[in-house]
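Hi team,

As requested, here is the filled-out complex form for the iron/sulfur cluster run. I kept the field names the same as last time so the parser does not choke. Let me know if anything looks off before we queue the next batch.

— J.
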Amino acid sequence: MTRSARPGGVTGAPSPQVREIYGSGLGVQRGEVLVPTLLGGELTEPISCAAAPLVAGSLQRKGCQVRLAPTPKYTDAGTDGDAVLYVATCRQPGGATTAIAAATPIGDRLSASVAMAAVAEWAAAAGSRVVLAAGSPWCMGAERAAETYRRAAAEYSGRGRTVRALGPLSVPPEAAAELDMLGIVPVTSLADAEEGDVVLFPAHGVSSQVRAEAAERGLVVIDATCPLVAQAQEAAGRLAGRGQHVVLIGHPQAAAATPIASRAVGQVTIVENTGGTTALNVRDAQRISYMLQPGLPVEAASGVIGALRSRYPAAQGTPPAGLCYAPSDRLATVRAVAAGSDLVLVLGDPQSGDSRQVVAQARDTGRRVQPLGAVFELTPALIDGATTIGIIESTSAHSGLAAQVIAAIGGLGQLHVARRQVRTDPPALDDREDGARRRGRGGPAPAYHSASVVAAAGLTGTRRTGTAP
Ligand code: SF4
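And here is what came back:
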């Protein structure tokens, strides 16, 4: 028997029809709805049911007990069958086919009507789409720290040493789970470490006091401080040593701020906004330098730099210790993906701070934006009319979620996946110093500026917007 789903779909083409097949060998249990992840008939090769999580989600929302399982070989048994299979098929590139399907036991009329409705609503959402996927939300410093932690665990855990990671574990969720399995113990303070322990310093660094205490107690230290944070720490110490007052443009609560300020106690003021420059009180207006806290979008500093320079014209940017463009690039990536999409899915825990921030940034583009914690949460209404779907992972998203969502959407018809990532290639250190010399200043080039100021000074990095098929 064949029933038609409502016509339409995302391309306006007729939706795939829903067929009702009485079969056996499906293994459907009474009281459940089986959602095949793979479906094969007596005479047909099994075909993928990549949209199975979407169908399962619809059924779960209607209170059904759902089981996902492959059914590589069912038999079309006519009215003698023990189950009813509802199935619609979608065309894929190269002539392949995928199925949207659900099966219920014979005689379970309530489940049968819900199963048919679920298959029909997803069949109606079938069609060709494009997914525009943003690059990883994790920066070089976090990835590098995760790798350093893994190596430390491999080297020391087997030798009966306790490996403790100081501070919040800012690494991808799957890396955090792996480190947990490897026996790494997160701690908030050195007071939790015991003699003989191995202590890991995080990507955002630690204060000079913590470093000194670890050395004094003879703890084995493995330092995963991001090189860009380490350079900023050194720059702060160097400037203070020259009698400069350092204005650190950033947030006092940011994890990297205290470790940087600790290199120049009493000579660093953390300034968050233009108002902070008004409250500044420095002893010598001729000896003032400013630097940008790594982890802050470069553009966020432009107003503060302008206000600082208008009050202290002699204020200088710090030597080119290396700007961190990761936050700026991520923001630009979010905007680029959102601008090119009809609908933006922000993957991860919707309550996480990072998810909320990305959702707000994407909404600023005026696009429809939806946080998504799991693939089962996708609904036909959500993707209705969306031909290009942006997918942006927050840092709370587990590594497989984007692949799951993309695969499920691909189960609804032809899917083209493009990846978009904005990446800035900062100028090499030598180039920046050459630039300063050419301008005849003789001193260090001001590396920490807003994008426009940096561009005017000939110090800008090269920003690339990449879209890979
Ligand atoms: S400085 Fe930049 S790259 Fe390094 S940890 Fe911070 S955000 Fe990541």
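Two things worth flagging: Confidence is low (pLDDT under 50) at residues 1-9, 431-460. DSSP finds 15 helices and 22 strands in the chain.

Thanks,
J.
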